[in-house]
Amino acid sequence: MNQVNSASMRYRELTAPQARDAFVAALAFLSVCGLLIAQVFGLSESSASDKTTCIVMAFTLPITFGAPMWLLLRYFRKHNIESGFLPLSNKPGHLFWQIPLVSIGAATAAICSNNLLDSIFSEQCPAAEESSSISVHLSVIFAFIAYLLVGPFLEELVFRRILMGYFDTIMPVALSIGLSSLLFGLVHISPPIIIYATLLGLGSALFTRWQGTLWGGLFLNLFSNALITPIVLIMVFA
Protein backbone atom coordinates (compact mmCIF):
# COMPACT_ATOMS: atom_id res chain seq x y z
CA MET A 1 0.00 0.00 0.00
CA ASN A 2 1.45 3.42 -0.93
CA GLN A 3 1.99 6.21 1.57
CA VAL A 4 -1.00 8.33 0.55
CA ASN A 5 -3.43 5.45 0.93
CA SER A 6 -1.85 4.47 4.24
CA ALA A 7 -2.32 8.01 5.61
CA SER A 8 -5.89 8.12 4.35
CA MET A 9 -6.61 4.78 6.03
CA ARG A 10 -5.51 6.19 9.38
CA TYR A 11 -8.42 8.61 9.22
CA ARG A 12 -10.88 5.98 8.00
CA GLU A 13 -9.86 3.55 10.71
CA LEU A 14 -11.09 5.90 13.43
CA THR A 15 -14.38 5.06 15.09
CA ALA A 16 -17.13 5.93 12.64
CA PRO A 17 -19.47 8.58 14.11
CA GLN A 18 -23.18 7.90 14.14
CA ALA A 19 -26.10 10.27 13.54
CA ARG A 20 -26.39 10.89 17.28
CA ASP A 21 -22.72 11.89 17.44
CA ALA A 22 -23.19 14.32 14.57
CA PHE A 23 -26.16 15.89 16.36
CA VAL A 24 -24.23 16.29 19.64
CA ALA A 25 -21.22 17.83 17.84
CA ALA A 26 -23.42 20.26 15.92
CA LEU A 27 -25.18 21.22 19.14
CA ALA A 28 -21.83 21.95 20.83
CA PHE A 29 -20.77 24.18 17.94
CA LEU A 30 -24.08 26.04 17.84
CA SER A 31 -23.91 26.52 21.62
CA VAL A 32 -20.59 28.35 21.30
CA CYS A 33 -21.93 30.54 18.49
CA GLY A 34 -25.10 31.31 20.41
CA LEU A 35 -23.25 32.21 23.60
CA LEU A 36 -20.87 34.50 21.69
CA ILE A 37 -23.74 36.31 19.98
CA ALA A 38 -25.61 36.64 23.28
CA GLN A 39 -22.56 38.18 24.97
CA VAL A 40 -21.92 40.72 22.23
CA PHE A 41 -25.61 41.63 21.95
CA GLY A 42 -26.01 41.87 25.73
CA LEU A 43 -23.00 44.14 26.17
CA SER A 44 -23.97 46.37 23.27
CA GLU A 45 -27.51 46.76 24.58
CA SER A 46 -26.35 47.49 28.11
CA SER A 47 -23.99 50.31 26.98
CA ALA A 48 -21.36 48.96 29.35
CA SER A 49 -18.17 50.92 29.87
CA ASP A 50 -14.95 49.82 28.20
CA LYS A 51 -13.56 48.55 31.51
CA THR A 52 -16.71 46.60 32.29
CA THR A 53 -16.71 45.09 28.81
CA CYS A 54 -13.13 43.87 29.20
CA ILE A 55 -13.80 42.39 32.65
CA VAL A 56 -17.03 40.67 31.60
CA MET A 57 -15.52 39.19 28.43
CA ALA A 58 -12.46 37.98 30.34
CA PHE A 59 -14.72 35.87 32.57
CA THR A 60 -17.40 34.80 30.09
CA LEU A 61 -15.29 33.88 27.02
CA PRO A 62 -13.48 30.98 28.73
CA ILE A 63 -16.86 29.62 29.81
CA THR A 64 -18.35 30.15 26.36
CA PHE A 65 -15.68 28.00 24.72
CA GLY A 66 -14.62 25.81 27.61
CA ALA A 67 -17.98 24.40 28.69
CA PRO A 68 -19.22 23.14 25.27
CA MET A 69 -15.76 21.81 24.31
CA TRP A 70 -15.32 20.06 27.65
CA LEU A 71 -18.76 18.45 27.34
CA LEU A 72 -18.05 17.41 23.74
CA LEU A 73 -14.68 15.85 24.60
CA ARG A 74 -16.26 14.10 27.58
CA TYR A 75 -18.91 12.75 25.21
CA PHE A 76 -16.09 11.51 22.95
CA ARG A 77 -14.46 9.65 25.81
CA LYS A 78 -17.72 8.15 27.01
CA HIS A 79 -18.50 6.76 23.55
CA ASN A 80 -14.90 5.81 22.68
CA ILE A 81 -14.65 8.33 19.84
CA GLU A 82 -11.06 9.33 19.08
CA SER A 83 -10.34 13.04 18.63
CA GLY A 84 -8.53 12.43 15.32
CA PHE A 85 -5.46 14.53 16.16
CA LEU A 86 -2.98 11.84 15.15
CA PRO A 87 0.68 12.48 14.25
CA LEU A 88 1.35 13.86 10.77
CA SER A 89 2.83 11.18 8.55
CA ASN A 90 2.45 11.96 4.85
CA LYS A 91 5.24 14.39 3.85
CA PRO A 92 4.23 17.07 6.39
CA GLY A 93 6.84 19.46 4.95
CA HIS A 94 4.55 20.04 1.97
CA LEU A 95 2.10 21.79 4.29
CA PHE A 96 4.49 24.77 4.47
CA TRP A 97 3.59 25.72 0.90
CA GLN A 98 0.19 24.03 0.57
CA ILE A 99 -1.41 25.86 3.52
CA PRO A 100 -0.51 29.40 2.31
CA LEU A 101 -1.52 28.43 -1.23
CA VAL A 102 -4.97 27.20 -0.17
CA SER A 103 -5.54 30.10 2.23
CA ILE A 104 -4.54 32.82 -0.22
CA GLY A 105 -6.39 31.10 -3.05
CA ALA A 106 -9.60 30.93 -1.01
CA ALA A 107 -9.29 34.60 -0.03
CA THR A 108 -8.67 35.61 -3.65
CA ALA A 109 -11.73 33.71 -4.83
CA ALA A 110 -13.88 35.34 -2.15
CA ILE A 111 -12.57 38.82 -2.94
CA CYS A 112 -13.29 38.35 -6.63
CA SER A 113 -16.82 37.19 -5.87
CA ASN A 114 -17.91 40.14 -3.77
CA ASN A 115 -15.24 42.21 -2.01
CA LEU A 116 -14.41 40.16 1.08
CA LEU A 117 -13.06 43.10 3.08
CA ASP A 118 -16.27 45.10 2.89
CA SER A 119 -18.33 42.10 3.97
CA ILE A 120 -16.51 41.00 7.14
CA PHE A 121 -18.43 43.56 9.18
CA SER A 122 -21.71 45.12 8.17
CA GLU A 123 -21.84 48.89 8.51
CA GLN A 124 -21.97 49.78 12.18
CA CYS A 125 -24.93 51.70 13.49
CA PRO A 126 -24.01 55.30 14.28
CA ALA A 127 -23.44 55.63 18.00
CA ALA A 128 -24.76 58.57 19.92
CA GLU A 129 -21.81 58.40 22.27
CA GLU A 130 -18.22 57.60 21.37
CA SER A 131 -17.70 55.48 24.49
CA SER A 132 -20.70 53.31 23.62
CA SER A 133 -19.36 52.74 20.09
CA ILE A 134 -15.95 51.77 21.43
CA SER A 135 -17.55 49.41 23.94
CA VAL A 136 -19.50 47.66 21.19
CA HIS A 137 -16.32 47.36 19.13
CA LEU A 138 -14.45 45.93 22.09
CA SER A 139 -17.04 43.22 22.69
CA VAL A 140 -17.01 42.27 18.99
CA ILE A 141 -13.21 42.28 18.86
CA PHE A 142 -12.81 40.15 22.00
CA ALA A 143 -15.38 37.63 20.76
CA PHE A 144 -13.88 37.57 17.27
CA ILE A 145 -10.29 37.06 18.40
CA ALA A 146 -11.29 34.42 20.95
CA TYR A 147 -13.19 32.52 18.28
CA LEU A 148 -10.30 32.71 15.80
CA LEU A 149 -7.86 31.39 18.40
CA VAL A 150 -9.97 28.64 19.96
CA GLY A 151 -12.65 28.05 17.34
CA PRO A 152 -10.45 26.09 14.89
CA PHE A 153 -10.05 23.21 17.37
CA LEU A 154 -13.82 22.94 17.74
CA GLU A 155 -14.39 23.37 14.00
CA GLU A 156 -12.02 20.53 13.10
CA LEU A 157 -13.60 18.23 15.68
CA VAL A 158 -17.13 19.03 14.53
CA PHE A 159 -16.85 19.42 10.77
CA ARG A 160 -13.95 17.13 9.85
CA ARG A 161 -13.89 14.48 12.57
CA ILE A 162 -17.61 14.06 13.26
CA LEU A 163 -19.69 15.41 10.37
CA MET A 164 -17.37 14.31 7.56
CA GLY A 165 -16.75 11.04 9.40
CA TYR A 166 -20.48 10.44 9.68
CA PHE A 167 -21.15 11.42 6.07
CA ASP A 168 -18.51 8.88 5.02
CA THR A 169 -20.79 6.15 6.35
CA ILE A 170 -23.83 7.18 4.30
CA MET A 171 -22.50 8.67 1.05
CA PRO A 172 -19.53 8.58 -1.36
CA VAL A 173 -16.31 10.24 -0.26
CA ALA A 174 -16.59 13.12 -2.75
CA LEU A 175 -20.08 14.02 -1.50
CA SER A 176 -18.93 13.69 2.11
CA ILE A 177 -16.07 16.13 1.53
CA GLY A 178 -18.28 18.53 -0.40
CA LEU A 179 -21.21 18.52 2.03
CA SER A 180 -19.08 18.92 5.17
CA SER A 181 -17.18 21.78 3.50
CA LEU A 182 -20.41 23.47 2.40
CA LEU A 183 -21.87 23.26 5.91
CA PHE A 184 -18.64 24.71 7.27
CA GLY A 185 -19.04 27.62 4.87
CA LEU A 186 -22.74 28.18 5.54
CA VAL A 187 -22.28 28.70 9.29
CA HIS A 188 -20.21 31.79 8.47
CA ILE A 189 -23.42 33.51 7.26
CA SER A 190 -22.10 36.35 5.01
CA PRO A 191 -22.11 35.23 1.32
CA PRO A 192 -18.50 36.18 0.44
CA ILE A 193 -17.25 34.68 3.70
CA ILE A 194 -19.30 31.56 2.96
CA ILE A 195 -17.31 31.15 -0.27
CA TYR A 196 -14.04 31.73 1.57
CA ALA A 197 -14.88 29.34 4.43
CA THR A 198 -16.23 26.66 2.08
CA LEU A 199 -12.96 26.64 0.14
CA LEU A 200 -10.99 26.52 3.39
CA GLY A 201 -13.20 23.67 4.56
CA LEU A 202 -12.51 21.83 1.33
CA GLY A 203 -8.77 22.30 1.86
CA SER A 204 -9.02 21.14 5.48
CA ALA A 205 -10.99 18.05 4.45
CA LEU A 206 -8.41 17.12 1.83
CA PHE A 207 -5.53 17.69 4.25
CA THR A 208 -7.30 15.51 6.81
CA ARG A 209 -7.62 12.66 4.34
CA TRP A 210 -4.14 13.08 2.86
CA GLN A 211 -2.42 13.23 6.25
CA GLY A 212 -4.82 10.88 8.03
CA THR A 213 -5.14 13.36 10.92
CA LEU A 214 -6.89 16.60 11.84
CA TRP A 215 -3.61 18.51 12.32
CA GLY A 216 -3.27 19.59 8.68
CA GLY A 217 -6.73 21.13 8.61
CA LEU A 218 -6.17 22.78 11.98
CA PHE A 219 -2.93 24.39 10.78
CA LEU A 220 -4.73 25.68 7.67
CA ASN A 221 -7.52 27.09 9.83
CA LEU A 222 -5.11 28.82 12.22
CA PHE A 223 -2.97 30.22 9.39
CA SER A 224 -6.03 31.63 7.61
CA ASN A 225 -7.30 33.21 10.83
CA ALA A 226 -3.91 34.82 11.39
CA LEU A 227 -4.24 36.47 7.98
CA ILE A 228 -7.80 37.66 8.50
CA THR A 229 -7.59 38.97 12.09
CA PRO A 230 -5.29 41.99 11.41
CA ILE A 231 -7.49 42.99 8.47
CA VAL A 232 -10.62 42.89 10.59
CA LEU A 233 -9.03 44.91 13.41
CA ILE A 234 -7.88 47.56 10.95
CA MET A 235 -11.39 47.79 9.55
CA VAL A 236 -12.95 48.16 13.02
CA PHE A 237 -10.62 50.94 14.10
CA ALA A 238 -10.47 52.67 10.71
Describe the structure.
This protein is an all-alpha fold and 238 residues long. It is built from nine helices and no strands. It has helices at 3-12, 19-46, 50-78, 95-114, 116-119, 130-168, 173-186, 191-211, 215-237. Helix 2 (19-46) runs antiparallel to helix 6 and helix 7 (173-186) runs antiparallel to helix 8. The chain starts with a helix and ends with a helix.
Mean pLDDT: 81
Overall tally of structural domains = 1
Q: Which structural category fits the helices and strands?
A: mainly alpha
| Helix and strand run | HHHHHHHHH
Low-confidence stretches: 1-6, 119-132
Binned, the helix content reads over 70%
Approximate shape: globular
Q: End-to-end distance, in Å?
A: 55 Å
Share of β-strand residues? under 5%
CA radius of gyration is 19 Å
* Largest β-sheet summary: none
The strand count comes to 0
| DSSP helical segment count | 9
